[in-house]
């Protein structure tokens, strides 16, 4: 279904979708449970037999016509003849049309006027499409009636839908292939339609280069990313907190940050320097534990990206600090990327201490925003840190590139 197809065309697509169930039922219907072939198959066989009888009865006339035309043809093209091929038993299904008129769907209030689908609004038509698809994906009747494989092509399914309807549409589209009989391909500008927690998602980005050549790049395949159950839980949680997290599929320069404060600070830099950071997308991991999961996804990309996180400390009081252990996991995912692809910086021991010189207990993003707006020196430091994540420039003091746990531990010890 095209994004801007006419109301009549969209109504026909929806009707045809539901008509497939009726057609499949027709092909499997048997008057007698003991008969081998369905009524439909027997009817097609009878049509084929009728064709053969007609051709046989007209064989003499056919031969006479062939000879007469061949004699005339030979005067222009010597030694050329014609033969009539009646195409018996070819595409017999096209000779039989049990339903001459297409079914018509009507929609409206229960006790009110029911109008044709083509007369409904765009949002209503698309919502009805999801309803029909959901029935096909969940209904046992539909599954039993349709065993043939289908391919569903949709252009920008998010158009004219409310946010809640977009999320419902995404669920329907991901559930549909689970029946085994459907493959779904969509084009979209909405990050909401990308759900990396699913096993059946392949993401291909298509864009136009400076030379106007159209290029496509496969950005993500579940088999290559190898997301484990914890990774999938992380992605589900992140999608729930931030529905637009997958916007990085649409950008070319990407930086992962651990928390809200870094995200707020870098967004302010984008606001202050819009041209410099015009094509930068900042991913807010909302926790150190999710950074490694996002790196698994980004390692499938063909471009470099930046990672910023707190170093934390090896010990939290008298016990080992779990946050420190996550440094090793992040380093492991960095090692799996191509050399030089990941620009990796740690704040000693966290972003607030490294940039502002003290720990902020409450309202960290808001307080960071106030300090940055009033202090050009802080703005320069944050801008320098952001630059180190998208280029090879050095980060500011107390923010370090590191390549081993021992090196990071040394930096933290020196700070103490």
Automatic annotation (TrEMBL):
Give residue ranges for domain Endonuclease GajA/Old nuclease/RecF-like AAA: 9-194
Entries under InterPro entries matching the protein: AAA_GajA/Old/RecF-like, Bact_Antivir_Def_Nuclease, P-loop_NTPase, TOPRIM_OLD
Domain OLD protein-like TOPRIM spans what residues?
249-312
Q: Which CDD domains match?
A: TOPRIM_OLD
Q: Which Gene3D superfamilies does this UniProt record tie to the protein?
A: P-loop containing nucleotide triphosphate hydrolases
Source organism, top-level taxon? Bacteria
Coiled-coil intervals, chain numbering = none
- PANTHER family the record matches: ATP/GTP PHOSPHATASE (PTHR43581), EXCINUCLEASE ATPASE SUBUNIT (PTHR43581:SF2)
Protein name per Swiss-Prot or TrEMBL: AAA family ATPase
